[in-house]
Amino acid sequence: MKIVRELVDRKNSVVLVDHDPRILMDADQLIEIGLGAGKEGGRIVTQGTPLEAEKNPHSLIGPYLSGKESLKVRTRATEENMFENGSVKIKTKPFYTVKALDVSIPKGRMIAVTGVSGSGKTSLVIECLVPALQAVIRGSKLPEHVYSLEAKGIQSVKVIDSKPIGANVRSTVATYDGVFDDLRKLFARTPDAKAKGLKAGDFSYNTGKLRCPVCDGTGIISMDVQFLPDVDTICPSCGGSRYGKEAYDILWKSKEKDSVSVSLLDVLKLTVEEAADLLHEETKIAKQLKILQDLGVSYLTLGEATPALSGGEAQRLKLAYEMETPQQGSVFVFDEPTIGLHPQDVKKLILIFDHLIQLGATVIVIEHDLELVTNCDYIIDMGPWGGTEGGRVVVEGTPEAVAANPESITGRYLKQVLAEDR
After folding, report:
1. Please, are residues 372 and 346 in contact by the beta-carbon 8 Å criterion?
2. Tell me: the pLDDT tens digits for 155-184?
3. Which of 51, 94, 322, 374 gets the most CB atoms within 10 Å of its CB?
4. How many domains does the chain have?
5. What is this structure's pTM?
């Protein structure tokens, strides 16, 4: 922010795309777009000073600027019962700029690994802990730089990152979530499908009879342009729907409303929220769509291609399968999951982490966002600085313990957040 102010003082205009209330409060002018995401967004909600945003009843960021809305949303474990579920203990050898480490991680808790950039957070978690856990689970040799690991009861380790979900044009929100399989079965049970002898497999746009014969179910065609890269364009036959004309004739009819009848193509054009409202009487499908709503991606359309999703959307979609299965013995690792998220989305993310913990998981986040960190049960603070001036554990413990440690850089800022929460 000091650099930004120097740019402004030199008569430059600086435009920041950001969600952090501390940065927004320092802005001369704030433009908020919303209200919601997808179809619910796309217009200016408020434009003016941060104080004007605070006073705007329609503003979603305003309550976070004024402090009326808090991100403290979960009850943390006490210091006394922190390790009652056991622990994962790792000892490492010196590597890169990281010193030899001896760390205990409480199981069944939400743990933040903090520290300034270059302090060794990623080295500890991604380069040591994750491959060591994978080795123990497989029964293979520990990584060269890991001295020992105790991980009794750990059966899986899952790194949930914000990398795009592949480049497969056939992958959509519905297929990735798994709800598409049940949608195909639903339409296969309709009288229209039975009259034509169609099965669930026929509704697949990858291999089914109903897929568009021109684009082969991809919704696009590639044009070979000589001396130039291929050009992708929407299929002129199906208009991007991926299906042939016969698919429009297979209709699902609501038992509650006689006037409501839709094709599978119509359903795939709906947002998650719209589909949940339409198909609420189909219990299994409604349950799967409810998970996507809880993950904060209710504005995505079911037929939306997953390679087009943002990093945050991809991250949350990857969690959809995990939300309703027992996670005893699972370790989830998130590398800076709050990047690009609005405070409301951060709040949803914290509740998702808490739900995973209730299912039996251990959740580890590499994080800088102080509000998320204060919701964690346990903190491992690396540093104190980066490079050769860091690489060791400065302090471990509750947020209060870190805030009380004079050597912790994170603690200095954490102390202010904890005071605001009180």
Report:
1. yes
2. 999 999 877 776 677 889 999 888 999 999
3. 374
4. 3
5. 0.88
